[in-house]
Design a protein that fits this description.
- The structure holds two protein chains of two kinds.
- Chain A has 14 helices and two strands.
- Chain A has a single domain (about 5-300), classed as ABC transporter involved in vitamin B12 uptake, BtuC.
- Chain A has helices spanning about 5-20, 25-50, 60-75, 80-100, 110-125, 130, 155-175, 180-190, 190-195, 200-225, 235-250, 255-275, 280-295, 300-315; strands at about 140, 230.
- A two-stranded antiparallel sheet of chain A has the order 1-2.
- In chain A, α2 runs antiparallel to α10 and α2 (about 25-50) packs across α11 (about 235-250).
- By secondary structure, chain A is mostly helical.
- By secondary structure, chain B is an alpha/beta fold.
- Chain B has two domains: about 30-150 and about 285-360, Response regulator (Rossmann fold, 3-Layer(aba) Sandwich); about 155-280 and about 360-400, Response regulator (Rossmann fold, 3-Layer(aba) Sandwich), CATH 3.40.50.2300.
- Helix content of chain B is about 40%, strand content about 20%.
- Chain B contains 14 helices and 15 strands.
- Chain B has helices spanning about 1-30, 45-65, 85-95, 110-115, 115-120, 155-165, 180-195, 215, 235-245, 260-265, 285-300, 305-325, 330-340, 395-400; strands spanning about 35-40, 65-70, 70-80, 100-105, 125-130, 145, 170-175, 200-205, 225-230, 250-255, 275, 340-345, 350-355, 360-370, 375-385.
- In chain B, the strands form two sheets. In chain B, strands 7, 8, 9, 10, 11, 12, 13, 14 and 15 form a nine-stranded mixed β-sheet that branches. A six-stranded mixed β-sheet of chain B has the order 2-3-1-4-5-6.
- In chain B, a hairpin with a 2-residue loop joins β14 (about 360-370) and β15 (about 375-385).
- In chain B, α2 (about 45-65) packs across α11, α6 (about 155-165) packs parallel to α7 (about 180-195) and α12 (about 305-325) crosses α13 (about 330-340).
- Chain B is globular and about 65 Å long.
- Classes of the chains: A mainly alpha, B alpha/beta.
- Chains A and B meet through α2 and α12 of A and α3, α4 and α5 of B.
């Protein structure tokens, strides 16, 4: 870790911790919790997308599997911890099956299979009235009390989400810097060479798939805790696409990109839409502009811009000290 | 530099002054403006209904010069985009950031259900227009009143009319495959079969079905009638296609299929269609005549049921606000006043609420006729004082499961 990145991490921690004091009112604290939840979704998808080059259009399926499992178990009388653990395990196991099926086909075929599986889960949620309440959805009785802490109010729930998010982020950061992460990047760039080197490309991809499914399941449980409600609308293709857009908008090759993407899309959807009636169009315009000027997404794009500015600064005034851009 | 600063200062002073001018009417009101939240859908496939809701409410406020019970109204409109999660966030915004005292909306049942627990915990009075039956039945929310109707409330009298007056025996049903369609059809089936009729076919088409040919081809040739519970433009598409296929069968419907807002695009296909509704643009109450004229003047369309929903909700809000002397911030008292609202005249005729907060009022059987060069929903029969339980006993009604695809069970299906 360079000195720059240590400072960046410390700074980020302080900012995240201070959010409830910076933003005015519960509404914005809740918004911050939502951003974190979506950021976790986007990060989990990015594991596949950014490092493994696997584009999935079925990521919202985990929201369905883990979310409904959790709600059904709690409604059936199981305690919150059991429900959450079983929901995440079941959903992760589902990710295994999902992965085996999807990885049968590379490229476009992969996208279509993930799309199909996502739609199947949505269809079941929509049609199995007796189980899921169909279109009318299901409500979740109450948020749990982890270790006796009350997370009913906005601020406490934000910190709960933040802790989970921080753990997830740490794991994903370790992952991306681990040998396994490097081999995953290898399978994205040069699958044939990786195979030549004796790596089991299929297994690497499957494990990544399952890991992405695991973190998405965690995010799903948080989503249910936050909304206290789940209906098939949350599982629709639109939701999967939105998560994908978050990752791409922010920059799929970086670890912080999906967080930025989640922040922008969530804010436009929920805050800007109060002032701009055609917020969908605004979202579209932003997306197009970003793709034109920063084809790798906002975070890598801005980094590049920063570097260019710095080197220009160096040329004109070589005395200026240079600090490494932080990741 | 100084010149520059002076310019900036001038600009600030000017904008401050203009703000003060804008704020002037608020200052005059005694207790500050009355804050009303409005959840509607402005984007996505349900936006046309959401737009009409906004038209209805705009006309209502315009008629009153933006004053209710002697107080200025500050209306905050939020777009839920027909998405439950977004509906929830928007409701939180209205309540927590904008401090509204009461909410009108949302349109769709799943949105209303998604914010149900939040409405309870934040104790915000809400005047919903969504149809979901259980919101005023088995899972009644104490902070909610519904001045429009449950999904099936208008289906009951249509079934009664079809069985007793039209003497139909064998009817097929078709509706959109989501909760509203299921409930709408279930209410019809129950009353129709209890009065000696038979529902011989029950079809549900996807909400976004591009074509109804495959469904129409399934209908038996010897039907007395077809009941449709399609919402919005789907009703228009279905009826048009049914007639194109040469079927002359009697069309029956719940309160959505031949809405006034779409009727002019339909033409002769819709003639003779019998639907049940709590509203018709043809109602001859003075309030309604004024309303229809205002909507036609401002938006060049006839008001349909969505526009009427928010107008009626506005009337209820006004009556309750007057009852508490304009102090709608006292939520328990205001909620009590809302539920005790008893209007002798309103857009829809006399109306009051039952103990669950659902409306009890007139329901109209309407027939599509041609009046001059316009197609209208002429009122052919009025059922007064209809509750959500129809003529069934409340306890027995509530002991049954909620209306759905599978309840009441269809015993007379022939396919």
């Amino acid at each position: 870790m360079t000195r720059g990145s240590v400072i960046a991490v410390l700074l980020a921690t302080v900012v995240f911790m201070a959010v409830p004091w910076i933003v005015p009112g519960n509404f914005y604290i809740n918004m911050a919790s939502q951003v974190l939840i979506y950021a976790l979704f986007a990060l989990s998808l990015n594991l596949m997308l950014g490092y493994g080059g696997m584009v999935s259009l079925g990521h919202a399926a985990y929201l369905g599997v883990a979310g409904y499992t959790c709600i059904l178990l709690v409604t059936a009388g199981y305690n919150q911890l059991t429900a959450a653990v079983v929901a995440v395990l079941f959903s992760t196991a589902f990710a295994g099956v999902f992965g085996v099926l999807s990885l049968r086909a590379p490229g476009l075929g992969f996208i279509m299979i993930t799309l199909a599986i996502g739609q199947i889960v949505w269809g079941i949620a929509y049609r199995a009235n007796a189980l899921t309440g169909g279109d009318n959805g299901m409500s979740f009785p109450a948020r749990p009390m982890p270790f006796g802490f009350d997370i009913q109010d906005a601020k406490n729930f934000y910190y709960f989400t933040l802790i989970v998010f921080a753990i997830a982020f740490f794991f994903l950061w370790r992952f991306s810097h681990s040998p396994f992460g490097a081999s995953l990047k290898g399978t994205k760039e040069q699958p044939r060479r990786m195979r030549m080197l004796g790596h089991n490309v299929w297994l690497i991809q499957l494990l990544t798939f399952v890991m992405a499914g695991f973190w998405a399941s965690i995010a799903s449980v948080l989503y249910v805790y936050y909304n206290l409600f789940l209906s098939p609308h949350a599982l629709a293709l639109q939701q999967s696409a939105e998560i994908l857009l978050m990752a791409i908008l922010g920059g799929a090759t970086s670890l912080t990109g999906p967080i930025v993407g989640a922040l922008i899309i969530t804010l436009i959807k929920n805050v800007i839409s109060t002032y701009v009636e055609r917020w969908n169009s605004l979202l579209g315009v932003i997306f197009v502009v970003v793709i034109i000027f920063m084809p790798y997404g906002l975070v890598p794009g801005c980094k590049q811009l920063w570097k260019r500015l710095q080197s220009r600064g160096k040329n004109s005034a070589p005395a200026r000290t240079s600090s490494e851009p932080t990741e | 530099m100084t010149l520059h600063r002076r310019k900036v200062l001038k600009g600030i002073a000017a904008s401050g002054a203009s703000l003060a001018v804008l704020k002037a009417p608020y200052v005059q009101a005694q207790a500050g403006p009355m804050k009303v939240g409005f959840l509607t859908i402005k984007t996505g496939p349900l936006a046309s209904g959401g737009l009409q809701m906004e038209q209805g409410l705009t006309v209502f406020l315009k008629e009153r010069n933006n004053m209710i019970a002697g107080r200025q109204v500050e209306l905050h409109t939020a777009d839920t985009a027909a998405n439950p999660a977004q509906a929830r966030t928007k409701t939180q915004e209205l309540v927590e950031r904008l401090n509204v005292s009461v909410i009108i909306g949302p349109l769709a049942a799943f949105e209303a259900l998604a914010i149900d627990d939040y409405i309870r915990s934040s104790q915000t009075p809400i005047l919903t227009v969504a149809g979901a039956e259980d919101m005023t039945q088995r899972k009644a929310n104490p902070w909610l009143v519904r001045a429009s109707a449950t999904s099936a409330q208008p289906s009951h009298p249509v079934a009664d009319y079809a069985a007793k007056e039209l003497k139909l025996k064998r009817v097929a049903t078709i509706a959109d495959d989501f909760a509203f369609g299921h409930e709408c059809v279930a209410g019809f089936q129950r009353v129709f079969e209890d009065n000696g009729g038979k529902v011989v076919q029950k079809l549900f088409s996807p909400l976004n079905a591009p074509d109804y040919g495959t469904y129409i081809a399934q209908f038996k040739p010897d039907l007395d009638g077809i009941f449709t519970g399609h919402a919005g433009a789907n009703g228009l598409k279905f009826i048009k296609q049914l007639r194109e296929y040469g079927s002359k069968v009697q069309i029956l419907g719940g309160f959505t299929p031949v809405d006034e807002s779409l009727l002019q695009q339909m033409g002769p296909e819709a003639l003779g269609a019998i639907t049940g509704n709590w509203y018709s643009a043809q109602l001859d109450f003075p309030i309604n005549q004024k309303f229809v004229a205002a909507i036609q003047a401002d938006y060049k369309v006839d008001p349909g049921v969505y526009a009427a929903e928010t107008y009626v909700s506005g009337e209820v809000l006004e009556a309750a606000a007057k009852a508490v002397g304009g102090k709608i911030e006292d939520k328990p008292a205001f909620m009590k006043a809302l539920k005790e609202t008893n209007l002798a005249t309103s857009l829809r005729g006399p109306m009051k609420f039952d103990e669950f907060g659902n409306v009890v009022g007139n329901l109209y059987i309407r027939k599509v006729e041609k009046k001059g060069d316009k197609y209208v929903n002429a009122v052919v029969k009025t059922y007064p004082n209809v509750s959500q339980f129809w003529t069934y006993k409340q306890d027995e009604f509530l002991k049954n499961p909620v209306y759905s695809r599978d309840f009441p069970p269809a015993k007379n299906l022939e396919n």
